[in-house]
Amino acid sequence: MKDNSGMNPSTANPSRRHLIWGAGAAAAVAGVGVALWRFEPRDVAQAASHPLWGQQFEMPSGEALVMAGFKGKPLLLNFWATWCPPCIEELPMIDAFWRENTANGHQVVALAIDQPSAVRKFLTRQALGFPVGLVGLEGTQLSKSLGNAAGGLPFTVFFKADGSIWRQKMGQLTANDLAQWRSATL
What does the pLDDT read at residue 185? Predict the structure, then answer.
């Protein structure tokens, strides 16, 4: 088979083949870079005055979860759903962290981007000690406003006591993530 130049690609000049392979590799690296950049959490301007602090959400019990009540102490805000396996896997670790650190002022809130009935059913099987808010699909926009560029789950925002964001994490949390945040906010 010959290309447009009339040459057989298998016998083409080795430097031309290297150039073609190099261009292909550069394009692949650029594509991966763009994909990673797209999913990387974004900065949030004025996180301490973000509209989140003025919102309230219904809890599975029917009570109101008032976000203003969480200002002034470190807060781990986790967006999750019952249909998200990494979300479900990290919840017991987050719950254990909350139980161990709530006396030190560390707070945890989970906002479920899910159907209320699915969340209530899930919580009957796996109780959580920290507050859970029901935000439904509107929670995706809220998470995006907090830096979740891709709108994926799980997504966690670590707030300092002053309401500023210490870190955002797209994807499943690790024990190391929690230990670093605890150290940074003591």
Answer: 87
